Automatic annotation (TrEMBL):
Name used for this protein in its record: Phosphatidylglycerophosphatase A
Subcellular compartments: Cell inner membrane
Mode of membrane association: Multi-pass membrane protein
Primary location recorded for the protein, binned into one broad class: membrane
Transmembrane spans: 21-50, 56-74, 95-121, 141-165
Pathway annotation: Phospholipid metabolism; phosphatidylglycerol biosynthesis; phosphatidylglycerol from CDP-diacylglycerol: step 2/2
Species of origin: Gilvimarinus algae
Protein keywords: Cell inner membrane, Cell membrane, Hydrolase, Lipid degradation, Lipid metabolism, Magnesium, Membrane, Metal-binding, Phospholipid degradation, Phospholipid metabolism, Transmembrane, Transmembrane helix
Record InterPro entries: PgpA, PgpA-like_sf, YutG/PgpA
């Protein structure tokens, strides 16, 4: 039996009756048997597609609200499961992707580039992402390392856009 199968998981019914699990597990994408963080990031793409044309203030508000709610939902879900930063908790990846895409040029190529860059930095965890991952706990700890990884990915996206678009 794999280690993933031994982890405490919310029952599928709980996903529909517990809003913290529903959102923390990325609308169910965190149940993916392999690479749930990658699957959660993929689920963030259609949401991004829906909000990509929002004004900068509205998009920034979206990021602040989804981050704050993520701290709350991820904290509650991880406490209910008795495991800090459960691999199935993927809301942090979703918000990280949306941050990566802030001010990105339009087009599927840029959505793909944002996906690749965010996953790269989220998996590699360069300093201070790795430090935050180890030292900050609770819902804030679950969210902040992905936000820091997204800052790296956002900077890379902006550099790419500068050289290839502008």
């Amino acid at each position: 039996m794999s280690q993933r199968r031994q982890l405490p998981m919310p029952r599928p019914r709980e996903l529909l009756t517990n809003s913290s699990h529903f959102f923390a597990f990325g609308f169910g994408s965190g149940f993916a048997p392999k690479a749930p963080g990658t699957v959660g990031t993929l689920v963030a793409i259609p949401v991004y597609w829906l909000i990509a044309d929002w004004s900068l203030p509205l998009y920034a508000l979206w990021l602040v609200v989804t981050f704050a709610l993520g701290v709350y939902w991820c904290e509650r879900s991880s406490k209910a499961l008795g495991l800090h930063d459960h691999p199935g908790i993927v809301w942090d990846e979703m918000v990280g992707y949306w941050l990566t895409m802030l001010l990105a040029p339009p087009g599927w190529q840029w959505m793909l580039a944002g996906f690749v860059l965010f996953r790269l930095f989220d998996i590699a965890k360069p300093w201070p992402v790795s430090l935050a991952d180890r030292k900050i706990h609770g819902g804030l700890g679950i969210m902040i390392d992905d936000i820091l990884a997204a800052v790296y990915a956002w900077l890379a996206m902006q550099l790419l856009a500068y050289f290839f678009v502008g």
